Amino acid sequence: PRIAVLASGRGSNLQCLIDGIAAGQLEARIVGVFSDRPGARALDKVPAPSRWARSPKDFASREAFDEALGDAVAACNPDWIVCAGYMRILGAGFVERFSGRLVNIHPSLLPRHKGLHTHARAIEAGDTEHGASVHFVVPELDAGAVIAQARVPVLADDTPESLAARVLAVEHPLLLASVRLLATGRVTEQDGRIRLDGQSL
Ligand code: GRF
């Protein structure tokens, strides 16, 4: 299967997919890395022809940026599009264009803590558990069907940084396992619900 990855930052989640493929743990090809930040370090993890990055401020609107991004993603004919540390909200037009093939990893136990600053919010809320979720992307932010989650404890002396580090450590195996379920056809989405081995859950 052909996987396109959207990333905005350092790309540690992208790296774990690259490592998983190299280690034979995922039969797939990263056919492109796409970013809203031309300087994103994630871009350095793939050869230049597989990179696409534009600054949204070079576009007249969010829709115009998303259309250019969507055209570039479509051009590499991906089976799956994985948002791995992509920090811009994808408009409904983009989401619908790739509906059913678009997933995201979010650093919280959805449906808790949708949106940003999830680690600080988990500490603020006094949560004793936190973690990461891989989910299908729908127009509503962080609201799509959840494929898999990984849990970590929140410790009394945690800072957002210490908690983020603990979550990031489980994000990587979670993402690899989730993308493997997609790549092997075991998990699909239908009408906003997960189907495992063809059975609606
Ligand atoms: C990760 O915590 C991911 O869950 C969130 O952004 C962070 C970036 O990770 N969406 P990465 O190192 O750029 O993959």
Automatic annotation (TrEMBL):
List of catalytic residues: H106
EC number: 2.1.2.2
Job of this protein: Catalyzes the transfer of a formyl group from 10-formyltetrahydrofolate to 5-phospho-ribosyl-glycinamide (GAR), producing 5-phospho-ribosyl-N-formylglycinamide (FGAR) and tetrahydrofolate.
PANTHER family associated with the record: PHOSPHORIBOSYLGLYCINAMIDE FORMYLTRANSFERASE (PTHR43369)
GO molecular function terms attached to this record: phosphoribosylglycinamide formyltransferase activity
Ligand binding ((6R)-10-formyltetrahydrofolate): R62, M87, R88, I89, L90, N104
Pathway: Purine metabolism; IMP biosynthesis via de novo pathway; N(2)-formyl-N(1)-(5-phospho-D-ribosyl)glycinamide from N(1)-(5-phospho-D-ribosyl)glycinamide (10-formyl THF route): step 1/1
Binding site for N(1)-(5-phospho-beta-D-ribosyl)glycinamide: G11, S12, N13
Catalyzed reactions: N(1)-(5-phospho-beta-D-ribosyl)glycinamide + (6R)-10-formyltetrahydrofolate = N(2)-formyl-N(1)-(5-phospho-beta-D-ribosyl)glycinamide + (6S)-5,6,7,8-tetrahydrofolate + H(+)
GO BP term, pick one: 'de novo' IMP biosynthetic process
Primary gene name: purN
GO cellular component: cytosol
Record's keyword terms, sorted: Purine biosynthesis, Transferase
Protein family (similarity comment): Belongs to the GART family.
Organism: Stenotrophomonas pictorum JCM 9942
EC class (word): transferase
Name of the protein in question: Phosphoribosylglycinamide formyltransferase
Formyl transferase N-terminal domain ranges (all copies): 2-177
